[in-house]
């Protein structure tokens, strides 16, 4: 790795280490894998790993070198340093990971994944590890259209999408929503969309968490956040969000792709990349403020002020997790709403029904979220709180669900009152703190229960997914291409590679690493 | 043939207009396009549903243009009944039940199915009283009764008893076509050590899947709960409770799969049914999914029609 000798320089970002000194802590341990040794930044509890290809490697080291020379990145440290600082957080387990195209962000780098032991009382949760756009994620819809069907009408189709889905910063939504709707959406997630008729029952089956995190609590979301979120439902937002019509270019695994709904090359799909808009942003901001105050009380020391965090089991930590789940639900409702609008747009242009176009959800996965999961660490099963920022989960089939995620089990029979309504009762059988507590009583508000449709649910499959890039997201099972725009980096087992003009992701073995954690 | 059919229909309690002279002829030649014919089929279908657990149902049509809907529904019913006649159960759906011969065959089949269902009910009425005895005793008793064995003497050894069962089984199997029961899925012979290991594996799987069932049931509960929170649903709360509660109490978290199930599984078990295949998805389709009617193309700027990927579709009822 050829790097020029730098003169010794003191600068606030890199303390008193020169670039060469920094390099002593960095080891290349594989073709695409680097190791960050303890000591790279103070107080590292574990080591760091990051995954890059050649162009990305160059960029990362350049960033580090510039930082040592005194250059800044708009208030962010270089990504490598951030990975190191995350490794210094209390309770972190195994490694602080940087997945491809990892780049600087607020506190955590974007692409930084970190897991914390739920049974370690010092473990923390950090909003910076989830990101400001809580539950920013990607949804892929299929159609039974071919490229040849769409090409002649692509202008109309694009126009229809623009008509239906507002875009841009501060854009307002077309789906009517009142304050009560918002409360319900925050609590119920896609169940709200389903009830209101915006979602199809099958959509839920292909959505992470079935489109609803059960530990959500709308009471933990500030009214400022709700105010920002209320008019924005069904909007795309700005930045790298998109609603894109895509064409299947190559199928790597026929059988699996068919099972998921992609059966031939040239098939037209739609991809929606969006998050929780202003609401998520405000939730994160509110939490950072609250946690900064609590850090002194709980004697939490971090390397970077942006890594504001709280003990997982502290009130601030629990409040954040519940609010984060609510914001997550909002984002799923948002994507469900945009799915509805996309279906409308297509139906309008093709003069048919979305049902006839077979516009099903193939998957909906989040890449900015924190979750409690079961994993094997050093041969033992542990319950971990995983922060994923710009990182997508990639479980294999049959990964065990987290058992304590469920609120206390109660038999349906014993809860029915004489008038046929459900009596919500307190959870007497809580198994201790697990970050997923749900206080039924405080939210019961004399709700009566039950429902009209009993729907068949199936556990959502965990598809192999790569981490999203800044600008494009690729499904692992099918390579897609868009009409125009920059070319995408596409790497399959290291065999094929072309570089885009901007830093873009590469696929490949990184998903395996995520799986190990 | 037609007379036989008419006689059977009368015996079965049909009292509609097709019993008149020549009426059945006319209906048969019309086939799916004849409302009278479809009405008769609908009647038979309703009767069948009284005796058998059927998911499919056939409705009468009002005019010849609704023939396709009838063809779809009847095809669904026939596949559920495992109709053995290729001319009725295979091939292009839009070409089925259009001529006299096919329609007569269809009627004959449906009528015989209905007759058989009623006969089964009469011969083997469902026992309402709970029988006493351990589950094992009841199972063995059930086996003996199904095989038509007489009650074994009290001093018979287990080996003799099971040898007797085996003999009877072989007899019964020889009377059916060779592929009727199918090959077992588990082909290896199991020794005591194998069985122990398999038991342990089964226990682990049962525990694992119990967790998953709990999760799914929890999600079901909360989804149904959310529906109940809407203002519109509050007025129907009683009705919804009465519909949901019995269905929900039938769902339990405990799995009762045992090694016995593994040993009993046949090869057709390995056919994996897609949980969201076209056929099953059709059952989740509802009015909400169809927002726009099929509108004929009116503009001069021609939009290319969509090319549907899958084959048989439900036509929207306009």
TrEMBL record, chain A:
Reactions performed catalytically: a 3'-end 2',3'-cyclophospho-ribonucleotide-RNA + a 5'-end dephospho-ribonucleoside-RNA + GTP + H2O = a ribonucleotidyl-ribonucleotide-RNA + GMP + diphosphate + H(+); a 3'-end 3'-phospho-ribonucleotide-RNA + a 5'-end dephospho-ribonucleoside-RNA + GTP = a ribonucleotidyl-ribonucleotide-RNA + GMP + diphosphate
GO molecular function: GTP binding; metal ion binding; RNA ligase (ATP) activity; RNA ligase (GTP) activity
Domain of life: Eukaryota
Catalytic class of the enzyme: ligase
Cofactor requirements of the protein: Mn(2+)
Residue stretches of biased makeup (Basic residues): 399-408, 456-484
The protein's name in its UniProt record: 3'-phosphate/5'-hydroxy nucleic acid ligase
UniProt source species: Champsocephalus esox
From TrEMBL, chain B:
CC annotations in GO: tRNA-splicing ligase complex
Domain of life: Eukaryota
InterPro entries documented for this protein: FAM98
Region (Disordered): 297-318
UniProt similarity note: Belongs to the FAM98 family.
PANTHER family for this protein: FAM98, PROTEIN FAM98A
Name assigned to this protein: Family with sequence similarity 98 member A
């Amino acid at each position: 790795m050829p790097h020029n000798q730098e003169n010794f320089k003191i600068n606030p970002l890199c303390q008193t280490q020169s670039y060469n000194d920094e390099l002593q802590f960095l080891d290349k341990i594989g073709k695409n894998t680097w190791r960050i040794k303890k000591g790279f930044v103070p107080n590292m509890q574990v080591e760091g790993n990051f995954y890059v290809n050649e162009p990305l490697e160059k960029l990362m080291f350049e960033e580090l070198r510039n930082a040592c020379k005194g250059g800044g990145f708009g208030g962010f440290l270089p990504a490598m340093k951030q990975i190191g600082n995350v490794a210094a957080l209390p309770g972190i387990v195994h490694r602080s990971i940087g997945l491809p195209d990892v780049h600087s962000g607020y506190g955590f780098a974007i692409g930084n994944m970190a897991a914390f032991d739920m049974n370690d009382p010092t473990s923390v949760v950090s909003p910076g590890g989830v990101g400001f756009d809580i539950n920013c994620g990607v949804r892929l819809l299929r159609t039974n259209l071919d490229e040849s069907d769409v090409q002649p009408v692509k202008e109309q189709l694009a126009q229809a999408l623009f008509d239906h889905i507002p875009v841009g910063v501060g854009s307002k939504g077309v789906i009517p929503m009142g304050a009560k709707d918002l409360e319900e959406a925050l609590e119920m997630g896609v169940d709200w969309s389903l009830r209101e008729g915006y979602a199809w029952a099958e959509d839920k089956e292909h959505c992470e968490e079935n489109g609803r995190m059960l530990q959500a609590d709308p009471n933990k979301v500030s009214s400022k956040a709700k105010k920002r979120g209320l008019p924005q439902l069904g909007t795309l937002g700005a930045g790298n969000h998109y609603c894109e019509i895509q064409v299947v270019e190559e199928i790597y695994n026929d059988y699996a792709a068919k099972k998921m709904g992609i059966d031939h090359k040239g098939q037209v799909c739609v991809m929606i990349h969006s998050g929780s808009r202003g609401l998520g942003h405000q939730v994160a901001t509110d939490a950072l403020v609250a946690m900064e105050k609590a850090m002194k009380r709980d004697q939490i020391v971090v390397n970077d002020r942006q890594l504001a965090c709280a003990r997982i089991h502290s009130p601030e930590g629990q409040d954040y997790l519940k609010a984060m789940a609510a914001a997550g639900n909002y984002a799923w409702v948002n994507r469900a709403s945009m799915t509805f609008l996309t279906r409308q747009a297509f139906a309008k242009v093709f003069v048919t029904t979305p049902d006839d176009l077979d516009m099903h959800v193939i998957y909906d996965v989040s890449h900015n979220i924190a979750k409690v999961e079961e994993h094997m660490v050093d041969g033992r099963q542990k319950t971990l709180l995983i922060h994923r920022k710009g990182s997508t989960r990639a479980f294999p089939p049959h990964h065990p669900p987290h058992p304590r995620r469920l609120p206390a089990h109660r038999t349906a029979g014993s809860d029915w009152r004489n008038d046929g309504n459900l009596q919500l009762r307190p959870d007497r059988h809580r198994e201790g703190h697990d970050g997923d507590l749900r206080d039924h009583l405080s939210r019961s508000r004399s709700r009566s229960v039950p429902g009209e449709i009993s729907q068949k649910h199936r556990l959502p499959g965990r598809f192999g997914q790569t981490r999203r890039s800044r600008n494009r997201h690729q499904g692992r099972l099918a390579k897609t291409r868009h009409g125009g725009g920059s070319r995408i980096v596409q790497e399959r087992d290291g065999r094929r590679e072309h570089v885009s003009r901007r830093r873009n992701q590469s696929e490949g073995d990184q998903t395996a690493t995520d799986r190990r954690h | 043939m037609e007379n036989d059919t008419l006689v059977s229909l009368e015996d079965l309690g049909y009292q509609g207009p097709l019993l008149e002279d020549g009426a059945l002829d006319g209906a048969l030649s019309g086939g799916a396009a004849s409302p009278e014919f479809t009405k008769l089929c609908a009647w038979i279908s309703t009767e069948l549903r009284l005796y058998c657990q059927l998911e499919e149902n056939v409705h009468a049509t009002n005019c010849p243009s609704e023939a396709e809907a009838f063809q779809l529904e009847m095809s669904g019913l026939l596949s559920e009944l495992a109709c053995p006649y290729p001319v009725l159960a295979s091939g292009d759906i839009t070409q089925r039940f259009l001529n006299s011969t096919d329609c007569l065959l269809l009627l004959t089949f449906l009528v015989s199915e209905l007759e058989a269902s009623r006969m089964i009910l009469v011969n083997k009425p469902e026992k309402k009283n709970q029988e006493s005895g351990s589950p094992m005793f009841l199972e063995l008793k059930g086996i003996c009764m199904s095989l038509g064995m007489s009650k074994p003497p009290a001093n018979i050894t287990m080996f003799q008893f099971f040898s007797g069962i085996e003999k009877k089984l072989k007899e019964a199997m020889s009377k059916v076509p060779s592929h009727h029961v199918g090959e077992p899925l588990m082909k290896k012979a199991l020794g005591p050590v194998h069985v122990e290991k398999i038991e342990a594996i089964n226990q682990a799987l049962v525990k694992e899947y119990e967790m998953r069932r709990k999760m799914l049931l929890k999600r079901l509960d909360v989804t149904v709960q959310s529906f109940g929170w809407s203002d519109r649903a509050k007025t129907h709360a009683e009705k919804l409770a009465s519909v949901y509660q019995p269905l929900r109490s039938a769902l339990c978290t405990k799995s009762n799969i045992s090694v016995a199930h593994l040993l009993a599984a046949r090869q057709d078990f390995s056919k994996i049914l897609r949980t969201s295949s076209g056929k099953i998805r059709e059952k989740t389709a509802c009015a909400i999914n169809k927002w726009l009617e099929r509108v004929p193309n009116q503009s001069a700027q021609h939009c290319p029609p969509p090319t549907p990927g899958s084959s048989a579709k439900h036509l929207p009822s306009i």
